[in-house]
UniProtKB/TrEMBL annotation:
It holds the Pfam family DUF5947. This is HNH endonuclease. The lineage of its organism: Bacteria, Bacillati, Actinomycetota, Actinomycetes, Kitasatosporales. It comes from Streptomyces dengpaensis. It comes from the Bacteria.
Length: 198
């Protein structure tokens, strides 16, 4: 999944909100959108787009993902510890996005944006058998978000836009070669602010 466009928009919108009170615009109809606006997954461009309420309602019933746009859900589920070692991903802050074609991508934040690599599909299926909640994830628009950095133990099913917000936090707060203490405090704060939603 390409995160550069979505990530750049999230960083820009955060900077714009702190610098001015100018409203962000819907990427479909150009109407102003509130801070708590919804997002659509654009399957044609493999990006997430900000949308106003009327435009989000237009795509609210496309749960099967048959069209170009899919409404990003708001569901958040805190999971018990999920042993992601089976997936062979060597980082502790990462999100896994299942795709409609059965593939799975892993993405980890970095000061330059999200790094991305493919996960073995059979390994993902074994993990989903151990944690059946993973099978309920909506392809492309939900992710397994994991943070085991510095002894933490966070495992969540979240909307994909939460993952992009986390990547934006890392990119904004990263200092030097190792990120510095500031970035990890910001990441911890991000996870502390996550709340479960049906």
């Amino acid at each position: 999944m390409t995160t550069d466009g979505a990530l750049a928009r999230l960083i820009r919108s955060a900077a714009d909100r702190t610098a001015t009170s100018a409203a962000e615009l819907c990427e479909l109809c150009a109407a102003p959108v509130p801070d708590d606006h919804r997002h659509l997954y654009d399957g044609g461009d493999d990006e997430v787009r900000c949308v106003c309420r009327p435009c989000s309602v237009l795509f609210a019933d496309d749960a099967a993902g048959e069209g170009r746009y899919r409404l990003v859900p708001r569901r958040r589920v805190r999971l018990p510890r999920v042993d992601t070692a089976i997936l062979g991903v060597p980082v502790g802050l990462v999100f896994f996005v299942p795709r409609a074609d059965g593939t799975v991508t892993a993405q980890g934040p970095s000061p330059a944006g999200a790094m991305r690599w493919e996960v073995d599909a059979a390994s993902w299926q074994r993990l989903a058998a151990m944690c059946p909640q993973l099978a309920s994830m909506a392809p492309e628009v939900e992710a397994l978000l994991v943070n085991t950095v510095h002894g933490l133990d966070h495992h969540w099913i979240v909307p994909i836009d939460d993952c992009y917000r986390m990547v934006a936090v890392v990119r904004r707060e990263w200092r030097g070669l190792s990120g510095g203490g500031r970035v990890w405090r910001a990441v911890e704060g991000f996870f502390e602010d996550l709340t479960e939603r049906p």
